[in-house]
Amino acid sequence: xxxxxxxxxxxxxxxxxxxxxxxxxxxxxxELLSRYNVSSVVIEQADGHYVFSVEDLLVHVHEGGxxxxxxxxxxxxxxxxxxxxxxxxxxxxxxxxxxxxYLGVVGSGGELVGILTYTDILSAVDPTVLVQKKTIxxxxxxxxxxxxxxxxxxxxxLSHLRKMEDSIIVVEAGIPVGIITTKDIFRxxxxxxxxxxxxxxxxxxxxxxxxxxxxxxxxxxxxxTLKIKRAVVVDANRHLVGVVTQSELVGFAYGTWIDLVKxxxxxxxELVGILxxxxxGLEKSALTDPLTGxxxxxxLQQRLEEEIQRMRRYRSSPFSLLLxxxxxxxxxxxxxxxxxxxxxxxxxxxxxxxxxxTVDDVTRWGGEEFAVLLPHTPIAAAAEFAAxxxxxxxxxxxxxxxxxxxxxxxxxxxxxxxxxxxxERVDKALYRAKRNGRNCVVADAGPEGA
Length: 450
What we know:
Number of domains: 4
Shape: elongated
Distance between the termini: 75 Å
């Protein structure tokens, strides 16, 4: 069997497919998933293959769906498919493009033969999985090992023990019946015992053997458990196939991994690029508000911490923060609906983003509240900028001739205060702006005693 670091998708896909029909009810789906301990069922239609997963089932239940509902009544997802002989990186690329958790694997006739997930792909290139999947039969030489029958005299075969891991395998009719190790020889020699007796007098019996189909991982675990240094490998008829030492097993597992890495250097580079891109995408999504596309609360907190650390470390120029609230936004939702309200939020966010510098950060704090972090900006400049922002939003052309205004609280960070105290100061400035009639800017004078 040829070893490869990047196999075809057909060799790593989950071949056990649980099929359902559009008539299958949610109760039946849940029973199938539980009984067979799988995460999805497949529905095959004339136009393609569809998947209904555990996650879909949970969403259905969470939304108050009935267990009597049938798959045909629900929005099941059509899965992208790839040929079973395609390269594993092609499978990873398809998963990225589809944005789904599942990828169908099809045979030459278009029939579904398996399901592929990210877990399957990552497991296939894991060196620890390599030793779990490769069998000891792929390592061991099929040449006839040197063996001796029980009537051989020990001193006649001592020359075969030259290294610590060497051993003498005693066989009868091809079946290993005993073993003599270098440790046994040391014990015999140190005790002064004679070495001119048959091997049967010295050997350890019975022999711990390893089946030729055992994985390298299992063989290594057996050696560790039994505290022995070699695997005596046998076939289905218990006939001796060969002997593999512990160092050979470890060397094969990791030597093969190193060789494969070298051979597939370009593919590994591509894989790393794909995974880094995915990681960056996940990081970006974790810091982005999904509605407006600007930063979210988590991003603001992260950037606040960075700016505070910068000021305290370098005693550099101050930064300021604007907290912005859309005045009477509830009226927009009540009068025009939430979809229109969402459009207003997106337009306000886009306007803010268009007004700031590249070093500034615009975030949605929550609901109709926004924040703008202004590095290297004292309070006077921040208040001046806030006034321009207020005017731009007041004159913003919105759908259905909607007019909105904003209230803004502004504050400059003082090195001696905490992040929480600073935020509370700016939040109170925003509250004063709303209390003063809204559609205005209030700049905080700074912490008391500063």
